[in-house]
Amino acid sequence: MKYPVTPDGRYFVVRGRLWRRSNPDLSEAERSALASELGSARNAVRLAKASGDGLPAARARVDKAKIALGERGPVWWSDGAPDLNRHLARTTPYADWFSALPDNG
User: Fold this and answer.
1) Fewer C-beta neighbours within 10 Å, C or N terminus of the chain?
2) In angstroms, rounded to a whole number, what is the distance separating the alpha carbons of residues 26 and 22?
3) 18: closest CA among 90, 100, 104?
4) What residues have CB less than 8 Å from 21, skipping those under 6 apart?
5) What is the mean pLDDT of each run of 10 residues along the chain (105 residues)?
């Protein structure tokens, strides 16, 4: 499923909520390697939950990968716009754009 992306390319929307996209300035090789690490880290979280051991370290790996991708931590844009990650699209400057999407008006 393809999620709608805000006109400025900073976020995608899932169930009405904005989620920060990866930094588009990353090379494809860098993005791919980081995405692979993120997948491995998420698997480590799953295994840690099942075993009851190592959950903080596994979650730290996920956080580190997401920061490196630009999905968390400092924003990757430089125009001073605030980070609206996890905000409801309808309560942000993207509200008009969001309401114009099919099934959201």
Assistant:
1) N
2) 8
3) 90
4) 5, 9, 10, 11, 12, 70, 71
5) 91 97 97 98 97 96 98 96 97 96 80
Query: What pLDDT was estimated at residue 105?
Result: 58
83 vs 81: CA distance, rounded Å: 7
Return the structure tokens found at 51. Answer: 């075993």
**Nearest alpha-carbon partner for 18 in 75, 79, 80:** 75
What distance in Å separates the CA atoms of residue 86 and residue 19, rounded to the nearest whole number?
5
Q: Which of 6, 2, 33 is nearest to 20 (CA)?
A: 6
CA 77 to chain centre: 14
Crossing angle of the two packed helices 55-69 and 28-51, in degrees rounded to 10: 160
The distance in angstroms from the start CA to the end CA of the chain is 20
Cβ–Cβ < 8 Å for 87, 17:
yes
CB 41 within 8 A of CB 58: yes
